[in-house]
Design a protein that fits this description.
There is one protein chain. The protein has 79 residues and is mostly helical. It contains two helices and no strands. It has helices at residues 16-25, 27-77. Helix 1 (16-25) packs across helix 2. The N and C termini lie far apart (76 Å).
Length: 79
């Protein structure tokens, strides 16, 4: 059983060999690592959702500003 990809990062680089054996032999260590990997994955997913939602928010805000101007222009032209 190999280490999950999320554990291959600079912070753990000098411990890869120890981690590999501990991950296979120590259930508690494996659980901690699996929880860490889940957290990393979820954080990435939330970041993607946030970025997408932020883009949508900006688009809506820009559209509402354009529509405000159009409403004001329409009122001035028709009064």
């Amino acid at each position: 059983m190999s280490l999950p990809d999320e554990l291959y990062n600079v912070k753990f680089a000098e411990y890869f060999e120890s981690m590999r054996s501990m991950y296979q032999l120590d259930d508690r260590f494996k659980t901690i690592c699996d929880d860490y990997c889940t957290s990393i994955t979820e954080a990435k997913n939330y970041k993607k959702k946030y970025e997408k939602n932020f883009r949508n928010q900006l688009e809506c805000e820009n559209l509402s500003k354009e529509l405000e101007e159009e409403i004001l222009f329409y009122i001035m032209r028709n009064t």
